[in-house]
Write a structure and sequence with these properties.
The complex is a heterodimer of chains A (about 110) and B (about 120). In chain A, strands 2, 4, 5, 6, 9, 10 and 11 form a seven-stranded mixed beta sheet that branches. Chain A has a four-stranded antiparallel beta sheet with strand order 1-3-8-7, with no helix packed on it. In chain A, a hairpin with a 6-residue loop joins β4 and β5. Chain A is about 0% helix and about 50% strand. The chains are: A mainly beta (about 110), B mainly beta (about 120). At the A-B interface, β5 and β10 of A face β5 and β10 of B.
């Protein structure tokens, strides 16, 4: 099984901050990685697929990078609507999600 | 715009079988993969399995012995059955479009299923 480890688990930030979340895979997953945003009581929303491709309709302040075992999600300038929980997901072999990173207001 | 809607009992007794349907509207179920994902209250996401419209399936190894996913192309829906449930299966269950090398891009709103006597 491929394990996905996100860090940090919680992140406190202010509007306008640059935010980076890291996701590590227990073995190489090439670029088969996606990022999701989830707000309370709602389904997750796909932000990034294939590690760095922006899903249609997602603001350009979101970006993804990495390959192999280490990946990052960056929000270039945090907006009020961005306070949420973010998950990474590998889809190289079956599917596995990271444990989530909650982005809180500082 | 593709829309997905889960339906089924919100309460299931321990040892019984959880059954959910996901109806797809705004597009055909054909030519895509369809998946089930769950989220226990206050916890993270867990993949359950996915099915291709042709009927081929792939399941989470940790749940494989208890899971069956099926598809009905004539009704444009797919279904989940999870047998021998316990309190640990209490979760919000989501259906979504995606599978294999296609991450879920359209999701249902989710339905809470509680396992309790």
């Amino acid at each position: 099984d491929i394990q996905m480890t996100q860090s940090p688990s919680t992140l406190s930030a202010s509007v306008g901050d640059r935010v980076t979340i890291t996701c590590r895979a227990s073995q190489s997953i090439s670029s088969w990685l996606a990022w999701y945003q989830q707000k309370p009581g709602k389904a997750p929303n796909l932000l990034i697929y294939k590690a760095s491709s922006l899903e249609s309709g997602v603001p350009s302040r979101f970006s993804g990078s990495g390959s192999g075992t280490e990946f990052t999600l960056t929000i270039s300038s945090l907006q009020p609507d961005d306070f949420a929980t973010y998950y990474c997901q590998q889809y190289n072999s079956y599917w596995t999600f990271g444990q989530g990173t909650k982005v809180e207001i500082k | 715009q593709v829309q997905l809607q889960e339906s089924g009992p919100g309460l299931v007794k321990p040892s019984e079988t959880l059954s959910l349907n996901c109806t797809v509207s705004g597009g055909s179920i054909s030519s895509y993969y369809w998946s089930w994902i769950r989220q226990p209250p206050g916890k993270g996401l867990e993949w359950i399995g996915y099915i291709y419209y042709s009927g081929s399936t792939n399941y989470n190894p940790s749940l494989k012995s208890r899971v069956t996913i099926s598809v009905d192309t004539s009704e444009n829906l797919f279904s989940l059955k999870l047998s021998s449930v316990t309190a640990a299966d209490t979760a919000v269950y989501y259906c979504a479009r995606g599978g294999e090398r296609w991450p879920p891009d359209y999701w249902g709103q989710g339905t809470l299923v509680t396992v309790s006597s």
